[in-house]
Design a protein that fits this description.
Elements (H helix, E strand, L loop, with lengths): L3 E6 L5 H11 L5 E7 L16 E3 L2 H8 L3 E4 L6 H10 L3 E4 L7 H14 L3 E3 L8 H10 L6 E9 L17 E2 L2 E2 L10 H10 L8 E10 L8 E8 L4 E7 L9 E6 L2 E6 L4 E6 L5 E4 L5 H9 L13 H12 L4 E2 L5 E4 L6 E4 L2 H11 L9 H5 L5 E2 L1
Parallel strand pairs: 1-2, 1-4, 2-3, 4-5, 5-6, 7-12, 10-17
Antiparallel strand pairs: 7-13, 8-9, 10-11, 10-20, 11-12, 13-14, 14-15, 15-16, 18-19
Helix pairs in contact: 3-4
Pfam family, one: GFO_IDH_MocA_C3
Protein name: Gfo/Idh/MocA family oxidoreductase
Keywords: Oxidoreductase
């Protein structure tokens, strides 16, 4: 097996996950970490077990010096486009963290630049690598649950207040004139949106016909921490995604396909699928997963097609653009949320949000259509595109 040289841009935060993944792959002889790009050199403990990678604050210079063939870009959202393009111009293929870009204009700039450089860009939607996606599609297309009535997705997550102060761009819609769009649907629970579109075979930009957004926030931030979006696809499917970072209790996010004779629920972080349909008992299965870095390495070696190419995130980026251009998120009135102790800092919990998120995914309705009191009180705005 050919050993492919890799550099990592962004060694902290989620970058630590990529370092662990590299520790898994390096002993197999498939990859070698030759460089790290960050604002400060990482400590030896950060890259322990990965040799002695070079360091530079300039990604292009690092790629030139190390002759890296692949760059992992795991940096703030508003730096994704310039860093991915810098990597490509200096000859590296790219594994780019989601969301790929904070606006449609930046996404088009990224796509055009990657094409011009002749380099591949794999986007870090790890759920796309789940073998469950193909299984769910097959069940749907074989009519296992009848005609599809729509697709819902739900994400009840918990984040403490320090999550929104961990960096200058956290919880921001823009920073220093640059779009960031660090909202619940576009970053922490972006997989819920992208996976629902993927299951519907509606992941390209032209597959989206209309988008309605309802953006709210309980925290003192610019971006949304509790929101829902309803997407209408060219296939005629209605997709409603609801998510919050202010849940009473954290739960595994899921995508659910509603049919006329049953439903299929996919817990995409667990690769777990539950089929419930008329005339049959519940059927639950676990599936395997293909790692996106391994897939990119195979692609570079001409052994595989990309699982999550940039083009397959066009529909998701249309949702990012709808969130970016929507009215500013409405504040949930103080009487509808409480501050409770967290492990490291307090966290805010919106009354009844857990059930509201589940209800939106189950009914394909937005919060205000469900008469959720805090959404109505906040005058939750809906915008169509």
């Amino acid at each position: 097996m050919e050993e492919i040289s890799v550099v990592l841009a962004g060694a902290n935060g989620h970058g630590r996950w990529h370092l662990e993944n590299l520790r898994r792959l390096v002993p197999r002889g498939a990859v070698r970490l030759v460089g790290v790009c960050d604002v400060e050199p990482p400590g030896d403990e950060v890259t322990a077990g990965l040799g002695a990678p070079d360091f530079d604050r300039d990604l292009g210079a690092l790629i030139d010096r190390t002759a890296a063939r692949v760059a992992i870009v795991c940096t703030p959202i508003h730096t994704h486009t310039p860093l991915a393009l810098a990597a490509a111009r200096h000859g590296a293929h790219v594994l780019l963290e989601k969301p790929p870009a904070p606006s449609w204009a930046r996404f088009e700039e990224l796509a055009d630049g990657m094409d011009a450089a002749g380099r591949a860009c794999q986007v870090g939607f790890q759920s796309f690598g789940s073998h469950a996606v193909a299984a769910v599609r097959t069940l749907v297309e074989d009519g296992a649950i009848g005609e599809v009535r729509g697709i819902g997705a739900a994400g009840n997550w918990v984040r403490e207040e320090h999550y929104f102060t961990r960096s200058a761009w956290s919880g921001r819609r823009r920073l220093g004139g640059a779009d960031v769009v660090d909202g619940v649907l576009t970053n922490p629970l972006a997989h819920a949106v992208a996976t629902a579109l993927r299951i519907d075979r509606s992941d390209r930009s032209q597959d989206v016909v209309a988008i309605e957004t309802q953006l709210l926030r309980a925290h003192d931030i610019e971006a949304d921490d509790t929101s829902c979006v309803r997407i209408r696809t060219a296939r005629g499917t209605v997709i409603t995604v609801a998510a919050t970072l202010c849940a009473r209790q954290a739960a595994e996010p899921y995508v659910v396909v509603h049919g006329t004779r049953g439903r299929i629920t996919f817990w995409y972080k667990q690769d777990r699928v539950l089929v419930q349909r008329a005339g049959h008992g519940p059927d639950e299965q676990l599936f395997g997963r293909t790692d996106l870095l391994e897939n990119l390495l195979d692609h570079v070696a001409d052994r595989a097609e990309l699982i999550a190419p940039l083009s397959a995130t066009g529909a998701f980026t249309k949702v990012v653009e709808a969130v970016r251009t929507a009215p500013e998120p409405s504040a949930v009135p103080d009487r509808w949320w409480q501050s409770v102790p967290g492990r490291h800092s307090p966290r805010r919990v919106i009354d009844g949000v857990d059930s509201a998120v589940e209800a939106a995914a189950g009914s394909l309705q937005l919060f205000t259509e469900l008469d959720v009191p805090w959404a109505v009180a906040a005058a939750g705005r809906v915008r169509s595109r």
